[in-house]
Design a protein that fits this description.
The complex is a heterodimer of chains A (372) and B (203).
Chain A (H helix, E strand, L loop, with lengths): L6 H11 L4 H8 L1 H29 L15 H11 L10 H17 L18 H9 L2 H11 L3 H32 L4 H7 L9 H4 L1 H15 L10 H4 L9 H25 L10 H7 L7 H32 L5 H29 L7
Helix pairs in contact in A: 1-2, 3-13, 3-15, 4-13, 5-7, 5-13, 7-8, 8-11, 8-16, 11-13, 11-16, 13-15
Chain B lengths: L2 H26 L3 H21 L3 H25 L12 H25 L14 H10 L3 H23 L36
Helix pairs in contact in B: 1-2, 2-3
Classes of the chains: A mainly alpha (372), B mainly alpha (203).
Chain lengths: 372, 203
Amino acid sequence: MNQGIDLQGSFVEALVGLGVPAGAAKALWLPLPMVVILVGATVSIFVTVWLERKISAAAQQRIGPEFAGPMGTLQAAADGIKLIFKEDITPAKADPILFTLGPAIVVIPVFLSYLIVPFGQNLVITDIGVGIFLWIALSSIAPIGLLMSGYSSNNKYSLLGGLRAAAQSISYEIPMALAVLAVVLMSNSLSTIDIVNQQSGYGILGWNIWRQPAGFLIFWIAALAECERLPFDLPEAEEELVAGYQTEYTGMKFGLFYVGSYVNLVLSALIVSILYLGGWESPISVSWLASLIGVSETTPWLQVITASLGIMMTLFKAYALVFIAVLLRWTMPRIRIDQLLDFGWKFLLPVSLVNLLLTAALKLTFPMAFGG
Amino acid sequence: MTLAEGVQLVAFGILTAMTLGGALGVVLLDNIVYSAFLLGGVFTSMSGLYILLNAGFVAAAQVLVYVGAVSVLILFGIMLVNKEQPFIPMKQAWLGKAATGGVCVGLFALLTASTLNTPWAISTEVPTGEMATVAIGIHFFTDYLLPFELASMLLLIALIGAIVLARRELIPDVAPGEPASEALQLPERPRELVSSGSLPDTD
């Protein structure tokens, strides 16, 4: 099944037509999707920061940023410029190598995970067989960077924050992986493309959220915990730990943590929309509509519409989830560290195990509905 | 040489250098925290080598298990047991170092000789690549079922052991009347004992 637009093929063909050798044309194509995704991820920070500021302002009956750009849309850019021009301070007794390396190790895996986020049938950097598993593996690297920056700051609050962050992300990784496993069980594949394709065809009724309601909730809670969003932002609980592992950081090193947390939030929302909300599929199946009015699926204009609708749908679902996350942040109180660990190990883990068992049983009983 | 071959060659060189350099750093550096972080780096570059061998699943598993779990656990251990002891210089320490170095060089020479002298049977089969997960699953549930189940038993034992250690329900050997001896007590704050079951569960 390889319908849809083949951008790489058309690009290489066009360049070959202009007299460029085929190998060189391919080499020219290689960096393009990566640059587009990198720029897209960076722009998503600006959008998310603006949303966070505006929604939090609305939740607290304020106006929020309004002078930087129209409706304050350039506020995030102003923040970024401020962070770039701030003095880059390394505390006198900190370990300079680890102190510098820490934020980078936190940010790099997050950007790397965009490898497997599909925006359409062929609109993905690489469709590798281990897709979603790669994302789980990459997200397990971040605790090392957090521990590194917490330890090297030479500050007890930083160290405690780093240890908390690592403990938290290790605890919530397990329910999250089990929830993903239930989805993988239904789609018979770890590839994100296959996971979306398995949900396609019936519009909104085919989405995994109806077959995996418990899994969806478990995954969303665990994803929020992995992003250290407010109900779970124990590592940087300012009443207890100043700012956790970020306490000693200024300038762009702090900026990297900031960037990492927002990119990670958008990434988690994208993954949730791929796993449970049908990815690039519209609520009403486009191919069904097309067959209704008698247009072939391979018509070029229809494919262009499908592709752009797919990108919009993926982003729309992701940002709806980001909206929920922001709203949760400004309405929920922070939980205690023992409640956090109890919740992860004593509630989410058993529930996700039962969910997995139930999915396996349902798959054997109703192979039609649960991807036998 | 095509583009792909060149990329593979360069990547292989970089990854090998990173693995060897990192491993040497783990052994030779004085600071144990640096060693632990470098160990994570060594594991990461080894997963890169697996990717070069078309084993994507093994590479991701390597990152998940060794970088995400083992390295983090080692770091946790180091950071929680932050006991600073002054290093006492020993007399004639070079003797031990020289002996260790000699043994290591000898082992390396032996391994190199055996690597060079063995007629390796290089398989001509095409790597399974993307289908590796399926192949691994089939092997787990057919010819490697016993090792797989034994490994899960081992994990279960470790899990139970961890729970026992974490709960640490000690039942004192001493009778209630006589004073407990200092030697049997753990250097931690005392916990409620299991035998005193009258306390209500407050969590």
